[in-house]
Design goal:
The chain is mainly alpha-helical. The chain is built from two helices and two strands, in the order H-E-E-H.
């Protein structure tokens, strides 16, 4: 696995896990006084997790 692919995969995995932890623990996030709904973190978890998985598989295949 190339270093850039490894770093991108690790970063996306950490971001995905952080979103999952937010959903599980029910943490509230506010940006500029606006409450961000938990479903957005769930969507971000799925998106980042899928990207990390695809990048990992692609780097292992080639």
């Amino acid at each position: 696995m190339k270093p850039a692919s490894f770093l991108a995969t690790a970063f996306l995995g950490i971001v995905a896990l952080a979103h999952l932890v937010r959903v599980i623990l029910g943490l509230e996030v506010q940006i500029g006084g606006t409450l961000i709904p938990a479903w957005m973190s769930l969507a971000a978890f799925l998106f980042c997790g899928a990207l990390a998985t695809m990048l990992y598989r692609e780097s292992r295949a080639g």
